[in-house]
Design brief:
elongated; homotrimer; seven-stranded mixed β-sheet; alpha+beta; 20% helix
């Protein structure tokens, strides 16, 4: 390991941060649409048409196509840094037209997430908590004149509902009927220590720099009797190189890591 | 065809949508500049310098370099979702410095498009209609102190004029002289049925998902005596794969498709 | 050279432009974070949490990782087009956690740049001038509850300080102690004429179109007794092709060019 010049990094995802003041009218989008076509602009046009008071932002639109896990991770990584009351619209929706529900989650921290309930809420529900979930009535709560046989849900249901909620045109209660807290959750390896082995998940790669992040926190790591004074999460990197490329490591709910102290 | 698990998709571009309320101060950019350098930020800086009341948005800046057709398509795909009065600035301009005119189109729907008249207006003129076209006086209507021997037209003429129009600093009439409605139009295959064959164009690929879109609408398609209950336009895809890659299909005004019922 | 259909282009970076009016509340970001993860959105969430009056913009987040030179160039290319009083936050920071200082530069033109002092200020200091530099106190001037053993400086120090400065929560004087004007400067070949040779730097490629830009201005070039009536800077391109690809040219502070008149 020393030969590779490895160093330990900290995963951004776990930093605690309080943003206590309530702000209004922020609507933050993420999707797997990419930035090359007009889908994101159509969503924003619809939102701005709901109210020109809205402030429109983005997490990313470069979620790999259909990658629900990464949608869940990016939401979890960023939502807590936005003011209470911020509305997020997440559209990674391989099941569009199928049975998944369209929902709005209100977290215990006071953030709102508008999304298909397909696993996207997995991490944010764990870390920010579920205050209440309501189902979007897809027939009533859609852009007028979009009720043709086809609907672009990202624009006509999610962006439209998110915009009306963020602008105060509708209240959270008016989104639709209340649901139980039984959201769809993706399965992944949570950080554990057992019989001298620490197990965890590789949630994402640090794509820009090639570092490999894990969800293994300081407390779990320290059960190996190791000392990680200045770190919050365990990560792997090469100084100004790509650890991920060199060792052909990818990420996702299926990627696990085991650490053993020699 | 069945072996490939083909399914039919709907092209976004044809959904009708009314956004009837008039909003002010929205300025929406598209270009082939990409997001890696400072050209887009220079345009936005100039626009924000005209008025800090302006709300600045983007369609995309990833139009393939010099691809006027795709500029035309992206405008057409998104403009109708923005409120009446929205001003669009489109800068895909292989003829910069040449004879093409710089114009502002007011559509019958009440949207404004600031662009070189090089074909970019082809589709939006067809679908939203031409209310009136005015020529930008490139000598008078440019950023002060930019009248050196060289001008970055995107910034000094288009962004600057678009910003002044969107902010109400100038009226549409003050843009410049009125022109005839004879804009430069790109030639492409419109959807037709003839002697048992449906012909159409492949305007763009759904780049993010690899689907192939056509401009063949439901009515034209149904002349094959086929039944397409839930669709608006005819498209080709593979479930979670790229039809375009697999069959090496590209797009543009020159790409045509023929459908024959067996 | 003629066979290649070369033509001369003008580098954007040198156009003079006055934007004299003072505007408030604009905060403009650039980084090497890319747009695929949540880092940029976390910075913007923190900034919007400081004040919902702030207007948030971007230069680019596609600076090549760790490329301080390009950060310097992009700032220099765009800052002058933004109104006086605009605050820029630049985070290209290979030395994070090391000895480099965190500073705010006030330029003579009245723009503010929040950045690690690692060379990022090289070009903007030359062209817009140094009015005053203050050091950010990293312990006091950071997001509350981020004072764990690890800090994401881009978010907790730079975005946070930039937002407070742009929103008027703190004055420039309250950023921290005044420093001397001895910033870290990158070395590069400035345009010179000597003994029949013009020397200059290739600061960046025009990545979207493949043109090669130099910093050789019209006055220096003309010392070859050449006449460049309509140009401001000397550049190399192929009509609708990539000069950079064809001749394998890259850019940066280490790339030099020599011109000799035959």
């Amino acid at each position: 390991m020393k030969k590779l010049g490895l160093f330990l990094l900290i995963a951004l995802g776990t930093l605690a941060c309080s943003t206590s003041s309530t702000k209004k009218n922020a609507l933050v989008f993420q999707s797997d649409f990419g930035l090359k076509d007009g889908a994101v602009a159509a969503m924003k046009g619809v939102a701005f048409g709901v109210s020109d008071k809205l402030r429109l932002f983005d997490i990313t639109h470069e979620i790999p196509p259909y990658n629900i896990w990464e949608a869940s991770y990016r939401l979890d990584q960023t939502a807590k840094y936005w003011p209470v009351g911020t509305v997020f619209v997440s559209v990674v929706d391989p099941g569009v037209g199928a049975e998944r529900k369209s929902v709005v989650l209100k977290t215990k921290s006071g953030h709102y997430i508008v999304t298909p309930d397909n696993g996207t809420l997995t991490l944010v529900a764990e870390h920010l908590g579920i205050e209440e979930i309501r189902e979007i009535d897809e027939v009533k709560k859609r852009l007028s004149n979009s009720d043709e046989s086809y609907t672009f849900h990202g624009r006509d249901v999610y962006a439209y509902t998110g915009a009306r909620l963020a602008a105060g045109v509708i209240s959270f209660e008016e989104v639709g009927n209340i649901l139980s807290n039984e959201i769809v959750r993706l399965d992944y390896q949570k950080p554990v220590y057992e019989n001298g082995v620490v197990r965890g998940n590789i949630p994402v790669l640090d794509v820009q720099y090639g570092n490999v992040w894990t969800d293994i926190d300081k407390n779990t790591f320290s059960k190996l009797n190791s000392y990680l004074n200045s770190l919050l999460n365990f990560s792997l990197g090469i100084n100004q190189g790509s650890f991920a490329d060199q060792f052909k490591i990818a990420s996702g709910e299926a990627w696990k890591i085991e650490l053993i102290k020699e």
